[in-house]
Specification:
By secondary structure, this protein is α/β, with parallel strands linked by helices. It folds into 4 domains: 111 residues, Glucose Oxidase, domain 1; 109 residues, Enzyme I, Chain A, domain 2, CATH 1.10.274.10; 133 residues, TIM Barrel (Alpha-Beta Barrel); 148 residues, TIM Barrel (Alpha-Beta Barrel). Helix content is 48%, strand content 13%. It has 26 helices and 18 strands. Helix 2 crosses helix 9, helix 4 packs across helix 5 and helix 5 runs antiparallel to helix 7. The protein binds phosphoenolpyruvate and magnesium ion (MG). Phosphoenolpyruvate binds next to helix 20.
Length: 583
């Protein structure tokens, strides 16, 4: 049998080999039929019953969630439960049944189409994927109405162990139900870099590829498949040579992981004796467990947006205080750098933060986000500042302001921090009066004036996730221009260099807390440019540490500066290959 390879988007690293389990769900065939007026009420009752059963099913899934389940998954299921209580899904179809005199399935389909159309019209890539939620919930109700069993719930009997699940799409409830079954990987036909499946795969740490079109059509039940999460490639019916190749890579990968685990207790010191600070970026509570596993020295970036997502009302001071206090407690004396709210643009909460000019939505990345939004809404900002200040009484806490572009913004923010301090003083609530205040350097204007900002701050932290998008004028969410999203573009590197120098001149520390900081192929370059503090996704930390231990920083410093005179990212990348090969 000839091998077949299919391409998708690799969303979770790792290689998996297993037998394919094709999750063939019967296509839901929904037809319209007319209901006589005398039976309308009974039809409405049937719909209500179906919604009630759907709620009961999801509540059961929710109850069975083991405590180790990533919080993302739990919150997706909670969202689905909320949707089942929402008028748009639970009530609107009842009205349609009466008005059109049609069956419940058809009314639900019409309502689904109307809701999905609204989502599809949205400009924001993340919000567009929210239509998946509508479909997951609607399909659950439709299955109940049509008396079709939920496939995933039926097969929970250990049959999936070691299997590669091939499905059109997986709902959060499917994922929770499957997670304890020991599946090897999953492959879905739908989904992109922002889809739920993607987020879930990353949280669960299993290999996964999404967006493999027609996978269910081309693959056969039970055949051996290889999932290469690095390349986003699926290989079906591999021949003996390919199979041996992937088995070898799988063994290498395992060995590599266990080598990295051994580094845990070793310090991050370069060959020539320079101590490098390796901290972790934390967004969700699970990251804390992971950062302990890799022995990070503290949290260099605590993103606080997470608490503001998927809800109508922002959390109050007490909730923010308690959440951060819990993190401080878990860090047991290690430093915690809390970033103030960075809502807007790619980080959209339950409520809209969009910029409209005469009905046209302009690019939100250039609009009201982060510190700009906080200064526009001082009450929101003050609540957070008070919470952070109060937490500073509990352990070593720093406060970091995102997206600074002008000194005026910094002055306004400082005035609000002083106001929050005065209030707390009057109320007799303790806080650390000397709490270090830092700024993120993610806008070219701030990088160019790093020295000016550094004189007014206690530390700087470079965020290239944004610095690259603003330097290259290439939206970080827009795939059409991602060829321009180049962290190694000499213009970006010059801004990084200026920031490091600006901080050094003012005598304050400069860290970097973005994806680039965690990408080990940039570690030597950054060390060479003088960076000594990295804050990275916990899973990336061991590899960065390995490179630090393997590097002679003095030697790198002499070579790395050459990149500042180069003309293109391509030239820099070619140079990096050699730099990374140095012994
Ligand atoms: C950055 O922009 O590099 C950064 C760390 O912030 P975020 O990714 O949260 O925008
Ligand atoms: Mg940013």
């Amino acid at each position: 049998m000839a091998s077949l390879s299919l391409k998708g988007v690799g969303v979770s690293r790792g290689i998996a080999i297993g037998k394919a389990y094709l999750l063939q769900r019967d296509q839901l065939k929904v037809r319209e039929y007319l209901i006589p007026p005398s039976l309308i009420e009974a039809e409405q009752e049937r719909f209500k019953q179906a919604v009630a059963v759907a709620k009961q099913q999801l509540a059961e899934v929710r109850q069975r969630i083991p405590s180790s389940t990533p919080v993302d998954i739990v919150s997706f299921i909670d969202t689905h439960l909320l949707m089942l209580n929402d008028k748009a899904l639970a009530q609107a179809p009842l009205k349609l049944i009466r008005e059109r005199g049609c069956n419940a399935e058809w009314a639900l389909k019409l309502q689904r189409d109307a809701l999905v159309a609204v989502f599809e019209d949205m400009d924001d890539a993340y919000l567009r994927t929210r239509k998946d939620d509508v479909d997951h919930v609607v399909n659950r109700i439709q299955r109940i109405l049509l008396n079709q069993a939920d496939h995933i719930q039926v097969i929970m009997d250990g049959r999936l162990k070691g299997k590669v699940i091939i499905a059109d799409d997986l709902s959060p409830a499917d994922t929770v139900t499957m997670q304890n079954e020991g599946i090897a990987a999953f492959v879905t036909e739908y989904g992109g870099p922002n889809s739920h499946t993607t987020i879930l795969a990353r949280s669960l740490g299993i290999s996964a590829i999404v967006g493999v079109k027609n996978a269910l059509r081309y693959l056969r039940q039970g055949e051996t498949v290889v999932v290469d999460g690095f390349q986003g490639m699926l290989l079906a019916a591999p021949d003996a040579r390919a199979l041996a190749h992937y088995q070898r890579r799988q063994r290498q990968e395992k060995r590599h992981q266990s080598e990295l685990n051994k580094l845990k207790e070793l310090p991050a010191i370069s060959r020539d004796g320079l101590v490098i600070s390796l901290q972790a970026n934390v967004e969700i509570p699970e990251d804390l467990a992971m950062m302990n596993k890799v022995a990070a020295k503290g949290v260099g970036l605590y993103r606080t947006e997470y608490l503001f997502m998927n809800r109508d009302q922002p959390p109050d001071e007490e909730e923010q205080y308690e959440t951060s206090r819990e993190v401080v407690k878990q860090l047991r004396g290690r430093p915690l750098t809390i970033r103030t709210l960075d809502l807007g643009a790619d980080k959209i909460p339950g409520h809209e933060v969009r910029h409209e000019v005469r009905g046209v939505v302009t690019n939100p990345a250039l609009g009201l986000r982060a510190i700009r939004l906080c200064l526009r809404d001082p009450a929101l900002f003050l609540t957070q500042l008070r919470a952070i200040l109060r937490v500073s009484a509990e352990g070593p806490v720093g406060l970091m302001i995102p997206m600074l572009a002008s000194v005026h913004e910094l002055q306004q923010a400082m005035a609000l921090i002083d106001q929050a301090k005065d209030e707390l003083r009057r109320e007799g609530k303790p806080f650390d009066d000397g709490i270090p205040i830092g700024g993120m350097i993610e806008v070219p204007a701030a990088a160019l004036l790093a020295e000016v900002f550094a004189k007014r701050l206690d530390f700087l932290s470079i965020g290239t996730n944004d610095l690259v998008q603003y330097t290259m004028a290439a939206d970080r969410l827009d795939n059409a221009v991602n060829y321009l999203y180049q962290p190694t573009h000499p213009a970006v590197l010059r801004l990084i260099d200026m920031t490091i120098k600006g901080g050094r001149k003012a005598g304050i520390p400069v860290a970097m807390c973005c994806e680039m900081a965690g990408e080990s192929r940039y570690t030597r370059l950054l060390l060479g440019l003088g960076l000594t503090e990295f804050s990275v996704q916990p899973a990336m930390l061991p590899e960065v540490k390995r490179i630090v231990q393997d590097s002679d920083v003095e030697q790198l410093a002499m070579k790395a500066r050459r990149v500042l005179r180069m003309a293109s990212a391509m030239e820099v990348d070619a140079f990096l290959e050699k730099l990374n090969d140095l012994d």
